[in-house]
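Batch manifest, entry 17 of 40.
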Amino acid sequence: MATLGIDIGGSGVKGAPVDTARGELLAERIRVPTPQPSDVTSVVEAVAEVAGQFDDFDRVGITFPGVVVDGVTRTAANVDKSWLDVDADALFTKAVGGDVEVHVVNDADAAGLAEVTYGAGKGVKGVVLLLTFGTGIGSGLFLDGKLVPNTELGHIEIDGHDAEKRAASSAKEREDLSYEEWAGRLTTYYRKLERLFSPELFVVGGGVSKKADKFLPLVDIETEILPAQLRNAAGIVGAALYASEATD
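Output type: structure tokens
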């Protein structure tokens, strides 16, 4: 049986069965809008709706935009505050029928898992840091391909501000920044991370990775930086991979 991956994003809840040996979707992904407000009950219903479109899966991986410890959601920076300290594993298990294993993982950690296993970070030794730029900034930190979970590096303070308030793609849109102006902020952010972690590679994920050619050449840092290869499938694939490894 396949593993089902579901990615809870700011605008959509997306899911598909995944071949975790190859990192590929086994069917067309199903997408429903992310409920607004994104409270627990509404999001659980949306996930159940997506899962209900598929059969023949024996485990489910689900991404969440916040810290997840042992299946419990510990932060809710960019989703409804009702998610604080919720046993998400148990809630989603009940929602998808109760007879399959469900494992919830931070969304950037999931995207990073996909990229270090199948994508831009595959085979890279040392520290790899994936950053997703969207409503906020998500981070996935890896050492020799192994995940260091829940780093939340979007909340590092830079010039008196949460980094994501200044450098997320939402900040670019909100302040109508040019790519040159935004790249300047990204350079400041990446240089701070360079000093803290001395990574071998940065990977840029999220929707902006599709436009990497417009801003990555303008980011002035020493570390190699590459766009994510799995693009919008990274969350789904990484969630499924996380569930497979947790079950095994």
